[in-house]
Amino acid sequence: MKKFEYYKPKSLTEVWELKEKIPNSRFIAGGTDVMVKIKSGLLIPEALISLREVPELKNISVGKNIRIGAGSTITELIENAELQTAIPVLVQAARRIGSLQIRNVATVGGNLGNCSPCADTAPALLVLEARAVVRSDKNTREMPLQDFFTGPGTSCLSAKEILVELIIDIPSPQTKAISMKKGRVQMDLALASVAVLMETDGNFCKKIRVAAGSVAPVPLRLIEVEKFLENTEITEEKIKEAQRIAMESVSPISDVRTTADYRRHLVGVYVKNSIQSLMNGGRHEKRN
Question: What percentage of the chain exceeds 90 in pLDDT?
Fold first, then answer.
């Protein structure tokens, strides 16, 4: 492994100065993914610029909306009482990430910024309609999270940009959401994952958001499922049809971990089970 410099700036201003000085440097948050790439030779940076000591990236607040700094660790998400109350689906998804040691180091920004199709927090954040705030030394821009991902391992970020925070509107009290994930073992990456958010009035679906991970080049919203169920009466027949639409909405691959057909099957089953659970008052994740 080639030697590289390692910097720990204490402010975003210092971050931009270092990036300007060392263009071939790489930003690093928790490092749980980047260090694997470096050790395997897939990434050879001139220097690493750690974002862990930058206070502007660490804030979690719940007020008119929810703001989560990209430097917040997964453990900080899980242990935040306000998030547990306001958006438990994100906390549920975060609990499934790796081991305790990994959750203590990994950050929400790193989990998303790696742009893996199986990013565990992504489906929950997508159904919450999170917005990504991106900054460079000169500009700040905000976008729906689904626009942040552009492909496996790639995002809309330029070389000098950083994901600084996520903004989420607080769901209504009538909203319930659920997260489901299938891995080969307890701490495995997802073979497939699904999150569903619903606002209902009896059996009538006023709003639904559905997202999936590990079944396309990027984590994605299942828009066709949403269109089919929103503003309709939910019946068992409609749930079965939503299951079929979900399976047709994804484009999984076969790899050493499982087949495309199994991933597609999982998405259909999880969409069906999630809707049934939410219609019955459930709001808890499925653990496999």
Answer: 73
Contacts within 8 Å (CB) and 24+ apart, 239-247: 239/272, 239/275, 239/276, 240/272, 242/271, 242/272, 242/275, 243/268, 243/269, 243/271, 243/272, 244/268, 246/194, 246/210, 246/212, 246/222, 246/271
Q: Domain 175-279 maps to which CATH number in 3.30.390.50, 3.30.1490.190, 1.20.1050.10, 1.10.10.10?
A: 3.30.390.50
Contact 80, 106 (CB under 8 A): no
Q: What's the first-to-final CA gap in the chain, in angstroms?
A: 36
- How many angstroms separate the CA atoms of 211 and 34, rounded? 26
pLDDT at 285 over 50: no
pLDDT at residue 288, as a whole number = 44
Q: Model's pTM, two decimal places?
A: 0.92
Whole-number pLDDT of residue 287? 42
Q: What is the mean pLDDT of residues 193-201?
A: 97
